Every structure is written in structure tokens, then in C-alpha cells.
User: Fold these one by one.
Assistant:
Number 1:
Amino acid sequence: MTLPTPSNPGPFGHAQRKNFLFPEGFTQFNHGSFGTFPKVVEENMLGWHRKAEQDPDRWMRRGLKPALEMIRGRLGEYMNCDKDELVMVTNTTVGVNTVLRSMKFVPGDYILQLTTSYVSVDRTINYIADTNKGVGIINVPINFPMKDHEIVFRVEQAVQEHMAKKDGTRIRLAMVDWISSVPAIVHPVKALVDMLRSYGILVFVDGAHAIGQVPVDLTWLNADFFISNCHKWLYSVRGSAVLYVPKRHQHLIHPLAITGDYNNGFENEFAWNGTQDYSTLLSVEAALDFRKQYGEEAIIHYTHTLAVEGGKKIAEILGTNVMTPDDDHQVANMVNIRLPINNLEHPKIETPQYLIELMQDKYNAFAPCFKHNGAFWCRVSAQIYLEMSDFVRLAHVLKEIIDDLNAEEKA
Ligand SMILES: Cc1ncc(COP(=O)(O)O)c(C=O)c1O
């Protein structure tokens, strides 16, 4: 079977636009931040929503829990784990807070993270340290380009340096990304999990971007905790994520909202968060069906290849480089391309707002730009509804924007 590629997209590329809700003239280059979903998934979500409204009592008291169990079953099959180790939450931020705020940290406990942690994850870790006396944070500096083995080496070095202090403290938990946000990089997650666990450290994998971008096998990964959004790359409706807690840790973890299901079993505690609309969580069913229709391998192959080739194309047009030119495996569906700005301190790039408004209002196309390791970068997301011609257009948009900024500097 030949898989779709950017030069032979088959059912992907612009042929997919009709399956999504984009208006004419808008191109989505930032699937990574908030995701988006096909029309059939939206219809499925509305179907669950209407089912609840037709007989709210029957639904809330009898329908909801079996429906959530069905979704956990489908996700368990998809990620190779027991469905009873999975619970649904609305997003990764909630999942991270759920685990970190459930755990009882004691004085002398440290939480380790990499400096590429997502902002709300980093802030949550800081909140834990601020509100639990004697809890510290270890930030491991990570700047790209950096090879996989070097990342593992740096993290292990930080662990060993901490242990060498022999001050009676311990690294209790490490937070590691599977795919970081900015810069978007696939981390050597399995090597990090194995290394950190070998030191007796609990490992929480932030897989916000993982499911749908890379194959996820939770039995293989063997992490202590794992969270992934479904609403980013899996194509479910916004407000759907899955939290993995293996049985050995379930007694430690409770949802952020304690309800009448407190102490009524791990799955039950998470199946009822009080009265709300649960249809976004249930839309995962249709997202998985949509993916099955085209084939998991075909989707992942197309989007990854488009990210790698499209990123190199943009860099060629700009006369720059992608962040990890020799390590295409560090790219999943999001690629970082260097922007040739002359002055990194240009006032218009001090905050993201100027470029957000310019790209959205003038070009009807937006991709986040950010500073990292002494350079200015743009993160571009590949998706099944994009083709190489979109990347070429974006390259010219970026070139025009940067040329204008550079010209202003000279004037
Ligand atoms: C690595 C990472 N972690 C956590 C999050 C938070 O996800 P959410 O806003 O869906 O809670 C994001 C969002 O982009 C992310 O990129």
C-alpha cells in the first residue's frame, strides 16, 4: 500500500477542506494550539448533546457512565492499556493539576522539569512549591538544537548532582514532555522515563500533543502518569483529554472537583464532575472512527512528511534553517523554522500580539512565532487538510513580514 505524501496527497490536502469547518480563504497553520475537528465529529458531539436533552434524568443517571466507559475502552485499545487505567478530563491543564494537586508532597520533595515545559505546567509546579512548605523545583535547561542522548544526559546529570548533595531531600516527581509546545520537539520520552524511574523518581509524561501525532503505547511507555489532549491531534471536540493513572497509583489521585462519587472507585470519581455537558468527551468516539476511515499510519505518515518537507521548503524560501535539520525524528507534525530577523529586540516582537493581529487580519493565516536560544522562530503545524502549496504561501507571508520589520530597523 502506498501512503499519501505531499507530492501525492490522495484523500488528504485540499480535498479534506470540505470535511472541516474552515471558511473560504482561511488557512489553518496552527492546529497545534487548539486543534480542530471534522464536521462528522461535531455532528457526533451534537448527537450526544441532544441525547442528554431528550431525557436529562435518564441520561445523567443511567446513560453517561456507560458511554464514558465505552470511550475509555476505545482509547484503551488505541493506546494499548487497560481502560480502567484511563479517565476522561476536559484538558491537559486539568489533568496536570489533578495529579500534582492530589499528591501529598512533603518537605524535602523536589519536582524536576525541563525548561521546555508548557507555561501552565510550569506555573502549576510553581504553585505546588509555593503552597507546600519545603518543596523545591529543579529546572533542567534545554536549548535546541540538542540531540536525544544529550537531553537524557543533561537530565540524568541534574538528578545525579541533586543526589550528590546528600542533604536528605529527594526528587519525588519529574515532569517530561513527549512533544513540547514551543519549540515543538519530540523528546526522547521512553529513554527519559526509563532513566528517571531507575532512580526511583515518579515520571509524569505531558503528552498534550502526543495522541494523534505519534503512535502511543502506554504499556510500552511505562510512565507513572500520562495525560494527552484528544482535542489537539486526535480530532475530537475541544474540551476532551485523557488521563492515565496505573492501578498502583490510583489511590493517590482524586479529581479536582470532589463529588458524591468520592471513594466510589477511581473511574466513578472521574465520571461525574457535577452537572455539565459531557458531549465533548464523548466526541472521541467519532474522532477515532474518522481516523480509522483513513488509516492511522496514513494520517501520521502524511502529516509528518508534510511537516518535515514543508518546514525545509519554508526555510529554503527564507534562506534560513529548521531547528533540527539533522534530526527529522524530532519533528512530528509541528516544525520550527528560523525567521531571518536582524534585531531580536525589535519592539514589535517583544510580545506576540503584533504578529498575531498582523497575520490574522492581513494574511488570514497565523502560526505562532517565538524566541528560543538566541533566534526567532515560527512553529508551523502540518495537517491532513494542508498541502505543500500552503507552506509555500506561508513562507512568502513570513518573508514579507520579516522584510518589513528589517526595513523599519534601517529607516
Ligand atoms: C505541552 C503542553 N502541555 C499542556 C498544554 C495545555 O493544554 P490545554 O490548554 O488543552 O489544557 C499545552 C497546550 O498547548 C501544551 O502544548
Number 2:
Amino acid sequence: MTTMTATHSAPKPNPYFPIAQLQCETDAGIETIPLSEERAFTSWQPTIPERYQRMDVEELTRRIRAARGTLGDKVVILGHHYQREDIIQFADDRGDSFALSQYAASHQESPYIVFCGVHFMAEAADILAGPHQQVILPNLEAGCSMADMASERDVRSAWRELGELFGGTDDIIPVTYMNSAAALKAFCGANGGVVCTSSNADKVLEWAFTQGKRVFFFPDQHLGRNTGHAMGIGDDEMVLWNWRVPAGNLGGAKVEALERSRIILWQGHCSVHQRFSLTQIEEARAAHPGMKVVVHPECRAEVVDAADANGSTAFIAKYVADAPAGSVIGVGTEINLVSRLAKENPDKTVFCLDPVVCPCSTMYRVHPAYLAWVLEELVEGRVVNRIEVDPAVKHDAKVALERMLALK
Ligand code: SF4
């Protein structure tokens, strides 16, 4: 069980939420149990050799450390903020997906990049990596439910419909969040669009409005809406495109709403961040008068509006670090990061706003057994679980990423 309140002494249970509430399907496993005992393992990558499935965390830790030592500079291990401690302890760098990809690309001496994160992140690393570098995702089933809500086929179909409605797409700038498949980044690159992250979405949208009349933003409606609000764009100038509506129905939107729109928002969301609610913030503030609330912009608009601050994972980490000693801070993001921030800031009370603190279930699939397996295979000279983006896709995706990087 994860303890979320930190003090000068040993961590104490969170006084705000009874521990009994901190239950969810994967919660009990935050402290690593053998893969074979994980209830969800049946839906994870099954091809990992059987011997790894029964190893306990001590043995896995020993093996990872030994393989890591043997490989030396040949490998860079990247750990996203939302990875569990038993993984993050081996990371050469930890951060968000884009920063990690840049870190890997700046370590050209390492031919292997092991990305402890989800699929789109490994793709981004492959796009930015040198031609001699190979990217490995420890568990191929570690995807992202948000990224999966925007398939290339559905986005292209929506694009066609928008083109028919507006008599062309020249005035529409496609913007994809980093949390999307490489094919969508390439789509943006090939259509005058760009990629954004949660730290630069405002800058990217400002640029997009210099290029066209309206923005087509995918896959996260909340980041798009929150960024639009921060730029003074009202809800009446934003319209939701429901990708579940059969093609030919304008994503369920009305023609007048589309014609009035400045931002067309794809109806995607992050299953972790969409859990945070206004009620949670109100209850936390009632329990801790004077407390601060910081949330990720993938949260709903009413949650972002009620928070004291919102921003990327890097922003949240800095917000907590910069807060004065004694501060009480409720955080709206994934539990592994909140838990780590609580430990790293023992002079503050840091807790997750969500009383049912599920980790991101797909990030969680990077179990240490998978990391031990891919590293020991590398020691033997074998590459397993390589993520390789098609060269043409890579080229166009790079165009969209470079447009973003040019926006200082
Ligand atoms: S936290 Fe949300 S956006 Fe991030 S990988 Fe998990 S589901 Fe995807």
C-alpha cells in the first residue's frame, strides 16, 4: 500500500483519506509482487519467458542491477514520472515523454534505449534517436488509453469530413498532443500541423492561430479546452468531435457550432486525470483550510479552474518543491508521482486528491520482470521488444516535432 503523507520521520498514513479507501484493482501491487501473482498479467505481454514470471522483487532487482552493470554505457534506461519505484530506481533520467526522448537522443554513445513508459513514448524516442540507436519497450502491452482513442483512420476520416464542410482544410491546423501515435504526429507534419506537450500547448496554439482560422486538436479534449480557456477562447468557440459517432455525421457536432468554432476538440481523455473532481477539491479544502491544489491540465476544466495552479508533471514537481515548508498540497495527477513527491518533500504534506488512488494501469504494466528480461537479452546480444517507426512516418512526425521545437 502506498503511503502518501510525508513527515520528518517515517511516512504516516494519509490523515485525510482512510487507508481502507485506497483500494483498486492494481493498488495492492504498487509494492511489486511476482508477475505470476498479478491479476492483470493475463492481458500483458505473455511471451516473457516463464522463469521471470515467478521471480520476486529482490531477485529481479539483483538481476537488473547486474545486467545494467554489464551493459554500462551501451544502454540508457528512461523512466517516466508515472513508473513505480522498483523501476524508477534504475532510470538514468526520469521525466515526461518529450524530455526523456531528448535525453536519449543526446546520449548517442548508447546504442540501446530502454524506455520504461508506454508505447507512444517509445515511438517518440525512436523518432528523435540517432540511426544507430534502437528503442526497446519492456512490455509491448504498455499502451495509453488516451492515445488509443485517436486512431489514424478515425482522424483521417474526420479530416475528410471537415474538408467537405469547409471547402478544404487549408484554414484548419491539426495539433496533436505528444500522447498520440507516431502516425498522428506524421499526419500533423504532412498537413501543416504541429505537436504540443502539456508545457507548451499555449505557445503551440498561439502559433497555430497565426497559420489558420481554426485548430483541430487531438486526442485530449481537456488539455485543448483548458488551453483554449487560458487564451480567452470561450466554450461557444470550441466544439467536441465525438469519434464514436459513425463517419458522415460530423462527429455528432452541429454545423453552426463547427462554423463558429476556433478549436475542434477530439473527444479523448486520460482515464487517470479524468477521475479528479471539483468535489474532491472542495472536500480537501474543507479538511485543510489554506491548503494549495495543483493539478495536471489533462483534468476537466472545472477541476483546473478550482485549482491554485495547473501544469505538466515537471511544473507540478517544481510547484511542490518551491512551496514553503509546512505547506499542505493536494495534487491531481498519477499516484506514483504524487507518492514520490511526498517522499521527496518531507517538510510538506503532499497527497493525491483522488481517494481511490489507482496508478495508470498501462504504465503499471512495466513490471520489473520485463525490465530484467529485456536487459538480460541485451547482455546476450539479443534485442527483444524493439519499437521501430516506419521511415516515412518518422520523417513527417519529425517535421511536426521540429515545428514545435522552433517555437521558443
Ligand atoms: S496517465 Fe493517462 S495519458 Fe498518461 S499513459 Fe496513463 S492513460 Fe495515458
